[in-house]
Structure formats: C-alpha cells, structure tokens
Amino acid sequence: MITRLLASTLKDRLAESPAVALLGPRQSGKTTLALEVGKELDALYLDLESEADRARMAEPELYLSGLADRLVILDEVHRAPGLFPVLRGLIDRARRRGRRTGQFLLLGSAALDLLKQSGETLAGRIAYLELGPFHAMEVRDRPQDDLWLRGGFPDSLLASSLSRSLRWRQDFIRTYLERDIPQFGPRIAAETLRRFWTMLAHHQGGLLNTAQFARNLGVDARTVTGYLDLLVDLLLVRRLPPWHANIGKRLVKSPKVYVRDSGLLHALLGLTDLETLLSHPVVGASWEGFVIENLLAVAPEGVSASFYRTGGGAEMDLLLAWPDDRLWAIEIKRSLSPKVERGFHSACTDLHPERRFVVYPGEAAFPLAESIEATPLHDLAARLIETGP
C-alpha cells in the first residue's frame, strides 16, 4: 500500500466540513484512498455504478436518513446528479441536531456538471480536493525515470512489465474515449477526440492556437474549445495560464497546454520505452510537463501557477505565486549541465521573484548563478511541502 500524501488533508476536511468531494480522473486511486480513510471512521461505502447499491438508493432520502450518524462514501456520484438536493436537506437536518461535519464523502471524475451542480446545491456545505495519479514524493523508492515514462496511474506504474504498463494506458485511453467521455459532454466521435488528444500530445507545452487545431481537425474554433474544456474538466489536460500583471511589458496572452500524465502522453505518441522517448523531439516538453505536474501536486493550498513570456523574449517555465505575493521562479531543463538563458534572467528582472530554481534530472542541488539554484525535482517538491501556505 503506497501512502497518499493527500490522506491527512482529506481527514482534516472531513473534520471541518459536512461534505467533501474527492475529484480526479478514473483509476487515479480515489476509491482506495476513500476506503482507507473510511476504515478509520467506520464509513459506509456505496458504489453508484453497482446495480445493488443503486437499488439501495432507490429512495435516497429514506435510506440515507437512517445512516445519519455515519460517514457515507458515495462513489461515482456524477451518475446521480439529482442526489445533491437530497444531500443538502440531510446535511441541514444533521446540523440542526448538532452534527456539523463528516457526513458525506463524494467521489467522482471531475466533470463540469458535477462541480456546477454540487457548487450550486451544496454551497457552504462542501469542500473540494483533487487526487491525481502518484507523484514523485509518494513513490520515492522507484526510479524517477520509471515514473516519468509510465506516468503515475497506479495500474500503469506498478505493472509487472513495461509492455503491460503500455497496454494498460492504451486501454485506458480507449475506455475514456468510447465509454467515459460521452457521459460528461455532448456526443463526440471517439476517433475525432482521439485525433485532438494526440495533437495536444504532439503540441505538449506549446501555446494554445485554437484556430490551428480547428483547421487540422476540420471543425470550427468553438468546437475545439469545447473539446479542450472537456479534457481540462476531466483533469486529463492542463491549461497553464500566462502571468498577467501591469508591468509595462507586452505579455503573451495564450495559455500553454499539457497532457497532464506523462504516461498517457507517451502512449498517445507511441513511445514504448525510455530509449525511444529520449530520442523523440517531445522529450524536453515531456520532462517539462512532468516536473510541472509533480510540483503542482504538492504545492501548498492557495499557491497559483502560471508561466511568463513577453514579446521581448523574457521567459519563465513556471511561476508560483503565494497569496502574500511571494514569487518562486522555476526553469526546467532536461540536462545534467543546465544553463540559464537570457530570457530567464530578463523575466527575473521584470518580476523580482523571492526564489529562483532550475529543475534538472540530477541528484544534487548546487548554485548555478547568482541567486539561482539547480535542484533535483524531489528536493524542490520537498521544499514546497515544507514551506506551506
């Protein structure tokens, strides 16, 4: 059993809020984590994909009101959107009796409709947490390149062979396209969405050009935006926003796009092993996306992420902003002898970040230039965890 760092946060939220929604893509480990936490809290688990459990929930208010003193875990809750008004009534009734926390743990793939409905119906009664695949700080005993190549989905990372890992990822992509995604959005041809997802993989870390994608797919720009929104809502793709501030510079305004899990990225591109990956043009962008996802997985609550680029050539791969206006500037290099380019120095001159790092695939931190430190991914992730909000 690999301990998830989110476990303690989940327990804290259940102790503070009547309902907690644990969101994330399928097979990322939500159910396993919920059952582990639920075992400590004597919770009841109901899977709304199960015929038997759906039958028990035929009269949800009547059934759940008999469980008023227990934590109830509702898995695949997006399959029962009409349940939220019932939960609101039960939560309010329990509050009047003095029970204000730890009533419901809702698990679901992060769909826009689920967030919208739960937000509107359970406003002030629900907290949200996101559980992604394994990140580097949770699997320190495995080679970092293994996590990078296979990605963090448990069944892919822990597969007994590389071929089984790749086969699992290919099946995962097919299942999402043919079965899962149609649940969350308008009917989209699986082959069209696969082509778009693969285009995003080839475009890893690039600026979003909706018009170009639309031309390549033979659809209009609004349709492409809808496809991208859906993949972002399902936590499969990240849209990294540009830094916006009034600093008198001509800033790039388009977001960058990344396939979030590096293993899925490699499966979409047909990269079967590390040697193939290292000789592919996407290698630098793949490493960049991998580092960004791992750092954001452990970033303290309230920290926002963006990138920085100006028309004059100033550029920064990742900018972390704390609520108190502290900034950390991060450049990402796939080289054991990383060099800082002029664009990064120019960006630091513009923004005056408190800390400056270059993340590289080595094992030791060392000063790279004045106020700039080259650091392994694990070391910087550990600093983020220690720094806190």
Taken together, the total number of domains comes to 2
Distance between the termini: 28 Å
- Assign the CATH topology of the largest domain: Arc Repressor Mutant, subunit A
Mean of the pLDDT scores? Answer: 91
Strand order of the largest sheet: 9-10-11-12-14-13
The CATH homologous superfamily of the largest domain is called: Winged helix-like DNA-binding domain superfamily/Winged helix DNA-binding domain
- The CATH class of the largest domain turns out to be Mainly Alpha
Proportion of beta-strand residues: 15-25%
Task: Please summarize the sheet with the most strands.
Answer: 6 strands, mixed
Number of strands: 14
Oligomer: single chain
Poorly predicted runs are: none
Any guess at the CATH architecture of the largest domain? Answer: Orthogonal Bundle
Give the overall silhouette.
Answer: globular
In angstroms, what is the radius of gyration? Answer: 22 Å
Number of helices: 17
Structural class from helices and strands? alpha/beta
Please bin the fraction of helical residues: 40-55%
